[in-house]
Design a protein that fits this description.
The chain has about 325 residues and is mainly alpha-helical. The protein is built from nine helices and three strands; from the N terminus they run ααααααααββαβ.
Length: about 325
Amino acid sequence: MREIEVQGRLEQRLLATSILATLTIGAAALVFAFLTGSFAIAFDGVYALVDASMGGLALIVARLILADALKRDVEEPGRVRYQYGFWHLEPMVLALNATMLVLITGYALVSAVLLLLEGGHKADFDLAMIYSAAVVVACFGMAWRQHRLNRRIDSSFLALDVKSWLMSGSITLALFVGFAVGGLMEGTRLAWMQPFVDPAVLALVCLVVLPLPFGDLRAAVADILRMAPADLDAHVIAVAEAAKARHGFADVYTYVARIGRSTLIEIDFLVPPGWPVGSIAELDAIRHDVSVALGDEGPDRWLTISFTESPRWAF
């Protein structure tokens, strides 16, 4: 349990650091958007601020999950108020995060297209390049740091945070390239195209970014709906079938789900009529063997193993 607490504290600290860094970049982006007149930088800032707010929700949920795990270690199971824990909140936050990013990116894309149709607008490319260069370094540096430290705890929240930093860095890198191209047009025969550069870059960035959150959204919705992961389902079935053959059970029924960091497993063994039950200890020994074969034992695994002679209690 001590290791779980250490990992949980580390996850919270990394999320808090990420939120602070994102808020700083978002605030700087809004300031530079005002100074440069760049709608692309404004989008970068709003994107960062929304990401920070979702990171705040993720931090709250991470604290709830850790507090619940520590409480279960010292209290009687029946005395815990939220007896099924807070795992279900994790995919809900991830789904909300992905949905918000999709909506913001879609709105920015429409705005960029309207700006292009209206003839665009001029932006201060030199100042915009300074901003984007600094943010690219910050984003990729944070992504590397979070990824390196997340190897110790394998947090889905931190994995999403790494993706967010990589996405933000890629967005800002694209902005830097666009601003550089726009700056090079100054004083050339292509100078008439400068007003179109900022909205064009924003539109291209949105087209690239828009599909990215859908993968996280699909995975989060699958968790919310408790869809059985194919790999987990196959593993549990294999372990249960082996136990069935070893102990002479008539049949076995398995049910699995993965909700955020938690794994829910139920195995119901159907015993044949007259199957000898020497003692409860023998059934517990079977449970122990199955548990060991399943692996990944810990506070995030919810395992139920039952024995019944009637199929009605196994469905």
